[in-house]
Amino acid sequence: MNRILVTGGAGFIGSNLCERLLKDKNNYVVALDNLYTGRLSNLAECMKSDRFEFIEGDVQDFHDIPCDQIYNAACPASPPAYQKSPTNTTKTCIFGMINMLELANKYNATVMQFSTSEVYGDPEVHPQVESYRGCVNCTGIRSCYDEGKRCAESLCFDYNREFGTKIKVIRIFNTYGPKMDPEDGRVVSNFIIQALRGEPITVYGDGTQTRSFQYVDDLVEGIIRMMNDTPEEFTGPINLGNPGEFTMLELADLVLKMTGSKSELIYKPLPADDPTRRKADISLAKEKLNGWEPRIALREGLERSIAYFREII
Ligand SMILES: NC(=O)c1ccc[n+]([C@@H]2O[C@H](COP(=O)([O-])OP(=O)(O)OC[C@H]3O[C@@H](n4cnc5c(N)ncnc54)[C@H](O)[C@@H]3O)[C@@H](O)[C@H]2O)c1
Question: How many domains is the chain built from?
Fold first, then answer.
């Protein structure tokens, strides 16, 4: 049996990953989560399996959980959630990372860090390649997350060099899909929820800033290939994202059309340090992950997400 620990397993990506991992009968999955932003309802399907276990706990504390693989996804990820207590966010990134690296050393496990395109900050290089070192404001309101994640990456590489810890680092770009928290303030869920409720759609700035949106199943496929199909010496960092680039206005327009909503757009000031452009260069992922690339187009992913949000609200 392959024993797998997923931290942040009750969150959006973590719970999608747990479900997918359980499809392999050789996997035993333990989800560790303090339910800070995660929800047990995300794990309803997983709970039916006798190869699944949930532990309520904080990654800032050391938990001795025997395992062969660790997916370290625990961290609030939406700006309102990670800015609510910025010091907690940084501590989760850093103490959580140290604890997972120590656990990996104890059991000779491989640990995968869920890093982020936010390590590139407000990028001067477009699209972003892994070798780009980023442009992050280390005193701004996003830095608890951006710098927390950057330090977590640094810890991974230092543990690897100093102790030979087996690491994999993925940099995830904007991801959306079922099991997102409808209230946690991310752009795709916000737009869909506002459209479905007939409330005004909030656009920050003039709406010309761009993002690329990756459907969660595409991400999970990339995560699993990175963990299982790459040699030990391939540590990353590796970008996982959908390179299709859309402005916020294009996204709002598509959501309005697909939901048949009559909601109007309202404009609010752009939050501080909000990146103006973001687009993944995924050449490395294509090369190293057996031709991996996103398969689900925005329209199809939105259709599935709208169906999910319709059901839960
Ligand atoms: N969704 C994206 O677009 C995206 C993009 C880049 C990176 N990521 C990374 O992927 C990971 C998962 O993100 P998500 O979108 O699923 O967010 P999420 O908020 O839905 O999930 C995070 C989970 O971590 C848990 N958690 C938070 N602090 C914890 C702590 N101290 N101890 C234990 N559990 C804790 C939360 O309760 C939640 O279940 C995060 O590390 C995030 O930084 C996500």
Answer: 1
Ligand 1 contact via 37 beta carbon (within 6 Å)? yes
Is 220 touching ligand 1 by the criterion CB < 6 Å?
A: no
Spatial CA neighbour of 298 closest among 252, 251, 240, 248? 251
**Tens-digit pLDDT profile for residues 166-194:** 999 999 999 999 999 999 889 999 999 99
Q: Of all atoms in ligand 1, which is nearest to the CA of residue 57? A: 33
Beta bridge partners of 215: 176
Considering the candidates 82, 145, 159, 215, report the single residue annotated as catalytic: 145
pLDDT in tens, 260-310: 999 999 999 998 888 888 899 999 999 999 999 999 999 999 999 999 999
Name the β-bridge partners of 169.
Answer: 113
Query: DSSP letter at 37?
Result: S
- Angle value at C-alpha 175, between 170 and 178, nearest 5 degrees: 125
More confident residue, 59 or 211: 59
In a domain, 199, yes or no: no
- Is residue 24 predicted with pLDDT exceeding 90? yes
CATH no. for residue 223?
3.40.50.720
Q: Does residue 73 have its Cβ closer than 6 Å to ligand 1?
A: yes
Q: Compute, in angstroms, the gap from residue 267 CA to the centroid of ligand 1.
A: 28
Distances (CA, A) of 259 to 192, 242, 303, 310: 8, 23, 9, 10
Q: What pLDDT was estimated at residue 284?
A: 98
CA-13 nearest atom, ligand 1: 16
In a domain, 10, yes or no: yes
Range of the structural domain that residue 290 is part of: 2-176+215-243+280-295
In a domain, 52, yes or no: yes
CB 263 within 8 A of CB 257: no
Any domain includes 28: yes
Q: What is the SS3 assignment for 174?
A: coil
Question: Could you tell me if the CB of 8 is within 6 A of ligand 1?
Answer: yes
Q: Whole-model pTM?
A: 0.97
Active site residue 145: yes
